[in-house]
Design brief:
Shape: flat
Radius of gyration: 17 Å
Distance between the termini: 24 Å
Number of strands: 7
Strand content: 15-25%
Helix content: 25-40%
Structural class: alpha/beta
Oligomer: single chain
CATH topology of one domain: CRO Repressor
């Protein structure tokens, strides 16, 4: 039995015109961000699980059902980011960004949740792995 390798549902590959349109959206985002005085911020695509469990609440559906969590080779619990706020807050506290307060920051990039999109909900501004 031969199985065809396919992209995981909720992910996509882009080429040519589609990739160009995506880049145009990201460029527009960057222009608007700068226009309104928001700094670009980058946070890791994965964090210690406690970063999300602490900020989102350990009993929320996101933490209990929707996060992609695994143990790394050292036995630490790591989670692919389901959203950006917790990582930005972690960086603010651990990287000494308080000295730059008040901060106006914006970012974009992938976020990972194991969920089905809700009927009638608008698309998120982040890419998500959805089942």
């Amino acid at each position: 039995m031969s199985s065809k390798v396919q992209a995981i549902r909720g992910t996509q590959s882009m080429l040519g015109e589609e990739a160009e349109r995506f880049h145009a959206v990201v460029s527009a985002f960057d222009r608007v961000r700068r226009l309104f005085g928001f700094q670009r911020v980058e946070v890791p695509v994965f964090e210690a699980t406690s970063v999300f469990a602490r900020s989102l609440g350990e009993t929320t559906d996101v933490v209990s059902k929707e996060m992609y969590t695994f143990e790394d080779r050292g036995g630490d619990s790591i989670t692919l980011r389901p959203e950006f706020t917790a990582g930005i807050a972690r960086a603010y506290l651990s990287e000494g960004w308080q000295q730059f307060a008040p901060l106006k920051v914006a970012t974009h990039g992938p976020a990972f949740r194991y969920e089905r999109p809700q009927k009638g909900s608008s698309a998120s501004s982040t890419s998500s792995m959805r089942k």
